[in-house]
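hey can u run this one w/ zinc ion bound, need the structure tokens asap thx
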Amino acid sequence: MSDDALLIRIDQSRADLIGLAQDLIRIPTLNPPGRNYRAICDYLSARLLAQGWSVELIRAHGALGDSDAFPRWNMVARLDSGRAGDCVHFNSHHDVVEVGHGWTRDPFGGELDGDRIYGRGACDMKGGLAASLIAAEAFVVTRPDWRGAIEISATADEESGGYGGVAYLAERGFFSPDRVQHVLIPEPLHKDRICLGHRGVWWAEVETHGRIAHGSMPFLGDSAIRHMGAVLEEIEDRLYPLLATKTTAMPVVPPQARQSTLNINSIHGGEPEPLPGDTSLPAPCVADRCRIVLDRRFLIEEALPEVKAELTAVLERVKSRRPTFSYTIRDLFEVQPTMADRDAPVVRSTAAAIERVLGRVADYVVSPGTYDQKHIDRIGRLKNCIAYGPGLLHLAHQPDEWVGVQDMLDSAKVMALVLDDLLI
Ligand SMILES: [Zn+2]
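ok here u go:
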């Protein structure tokens, strides 16, 4: 029966939840460049301090992106019951991506229309952040005998890698397993889905080398672009078919991402692009450099050295056919794949809560791209971490982004029942 009081309390918080989500959307925490981070941390901290939480505001001094003009502020709030027990942590990023074109609503108006609240960051992920606050607040009020601790963080820069946010906090012990035992990240995976983790990432730059010469006598030079053409052909003919055979048991969504994938992000060769307003013709030169940037997403079944060796094999095959071919590979970025155990307490509690609130069995998914779970896993060494929150993933970063009020309420109920399961 006390569970019912908890769920009733969340239904009664509907207006508060709407107002909270609107207030958060109205603080334009654009990233880049990283605007209003302190303002949103101050807003959240005022709310939580008034309810007896202890709050730390942490600037990620010296982290990637941090500057005096755009300081990377983070907020970590904690409420201790005073009774021994686990700590459940809700982590939301407070930054939002650029507005972009095509909006028919005010991107920072937080307009409520029917069941929807519109705005940049509505679903990714201020709606989830608002739901987690409402869940925690309802839980502590209706369950005065709860145990352990609850933490809520609002962190910077998830959209640009999280180095001024979760990574910075993880390096300082905020996600160490002796402080925090369970983490939920309310990213917009939808209210009936549990996201267990993500695929791995390797970004690399490949450069082919040539020799510059006059374009009217290309035989006197050596074209780095033609060498890169041979590389691309080898990637097309040999590497893509190989990647298609590498499939995973990870339940990645969408299903086309249940294999290894490769994107060629960019290609640059020869003369730089003319500056805007430059009306001159290009100069006739053989290109002596050509570069591509590759974005390889790999599976939990693959090891990163093996992934790297695959690309080296491609380049070596090209080399064996082209006598003057030479290349360099530069590592740009790597993230290991991660996946929480389906038997982890936070996963089981969330699945049971979804079934209770929504009357259907939870879906288990894995994200094709990474999010802050990578830092919690690799730096914090905490495996009991999932993404769970309201909102539809395909609306993230889109014009007229919105979050559903009922979805936020349902997710808040699920989060509150997770607390009820783990902290009673
Ligand atoms: Zn997000």
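The radius of gyration is 25 Å. anyway lmk if its weird
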